[in-house]
UniProtKB/TrEMBL annotation:
Residues annotated as domain Peptidase M14: 14-304
Gene Ontology CC: one annotated term: extracellular space
Protein name: CBPM Carboxypeptidase
Family: Belongs to the peptidase M14 family.
GO biological process, one term: protein processing
Species in which this protein is naturally found: Ptilonorhynchus violaceus (Satin bowerbird)
Keyword tRNA-binding annotated: no
Transmembrane spans: 408-432
Amino acid sequence: ILCLVSAAAALDFKYHHAEELAAYLKGVHAAYPSFTHLHSIGRSVEGRDLWVLVLGRFPTHHKIGIPEFKYVANMHGDETVGREILLHLIDFLVTSYRRDPVITRLLNNTRIHIMPTMNPDGFEATKVPDCYYSRGRYNKNGEDLNRNFPDAFENNSARIQPETRAVMDWIRNETFVLSANLHGGALVASYTFDNGNSVTGSLKGYSRSPDDDVFIHLAKTYSSNHASMYKGMGCDNRQTFPEGITNGYSWYQLEGGMQDYNYVWGQCFEITLELSCCKYPPADQLEKFWRDNKVALIEYIKQVHLGVKGQVTDKNGNPIPNAIVEAKGRPHVCPYRTNEQGEYFLLLLPGTYVINATVPGFKSMLKTVEIPDNTGNFSALKQDFSFSEVSIRSSVASCPKTPLYQELAWASAAVKPTLHVLVLMTIMLVIFK
């Protein structure tokens, strides 16, 4: 244990390979067992653990009312900055807890999951650091993990990889509300949708989600608190990003991405953070990258407390899982539902909203709420729903992993031919008469 504690105390600004990374995380947990929990959510193709360190007042399990947040880095094995700054974020959080009042309140009211590397095999395979593309981007099977998830717009033929499957199971088993995926090779905060069709406005070069205003806010929160991202200069004169943000589809179309999967099937708002023009920069630059991102990383976590949260219960006060709870006017293609504890979390900007709670087979309940900015108080507005006529648990509901937006596009397109046929039939009838 003394060796592990010593390892936890010695975090240098260098690249940490698999054994060093695991030793550091184990050391942190040994040094701070009361508010950390270390576990592996699965293994890579080559058998390396996919480590996640959880931090919070209740690190081992979900607690009602406390939202779940996650950071994931090194999805592309040769994009390395995120991997290291997440280790330094861990170091900052554990050493500040119970010393810094803001960090203490943040950890007391948020359960934070940190995965420093989703693609450990790709990182280890990158023998020669390079600012540009390398084979280390892919996992051991040569698959791009950020093209490997089910897609809401088109059939993704890629075979699901062990790393992807582990993350999908992780998302299914937790009530994640907010997330960010750390990459490299650019300097911008990119937000969903990465893919699109006519239903989401892709014909105009922008794929808009029902919560586009929230995503813009989230991206701006990170960029404006970053040392230079907000300037929007990009990495060369050919590419600029106003305010340091971009809609994913507007930048380039991407099928099978993790942020779209989180939003559609995980009920979790995720953005992609490109943190360095150089994918695998020299280790002597890591300290500057940490300084540039430190404030932004913390301010972004606070956004998990945006909006409204609560429980849906029956007449006996028992939680109702799988009840649909959404803000009126912004329905999701896969309806957002309560978890096993009957909880819901909706990220919404300050304003007036009508929240619609629906238990299948019963009349919906509507409640008008005035949502303040509660991020500084580390708690979203609380609004519960009680169905007095319901005394049964809602049946298990799942959203099929089919291209849901593709079906909407077909339905939308089907209306036009129908109208054309009706017009032609009317003309023919007039001619016939």
